[in-house]
Amino acid sequence: MKQQATFDDANLILRLYEIRREDRLRTARRWFSQNCGPTTLAEYRALCVAGTDADEFGRMVVSYYEMVASFVTQGILNSELYFAAGGELGMVYARIEPILAELRAATGHPGMYKNLEIVGLQYGAYLEQQAPGNWEGFKKRTRGMIVAK
Fold first, then answer.
1. End-to-end CA distance of the chain
2. 85-96 residue pLDDT tens
């Protein structure tokens, strides 16, 4: 049985949206959507060299959505309402999905970005319910948004 979304869910989504509008996070999100889409850990490390803005932006965006995903996995935020409100978390997951296993192995942290993975896959299932092939199409489109190669 689906859990009914509440006004608290809606208010949390609005608060998360306000946070996304913070100048530094907005800059990081813009950078991420235009530049970040590595297919290997080596590509990621070349793109996000430690100590650079790119490194900060990448970590900022992924950790923000890991936090948001933790609200969903812990039952604090209604997933269906969150999915209906936007898909940026899905885009972030689609961008790091190709390197996730390699990143976990390299860091020795098997649970790294686990909430993001769980909710990213749930978002994919949500899209698939709307139309078969929608998730793969979404991933292809979001990976195709990258400007810099």
1. 44
2. 999 999 999 999
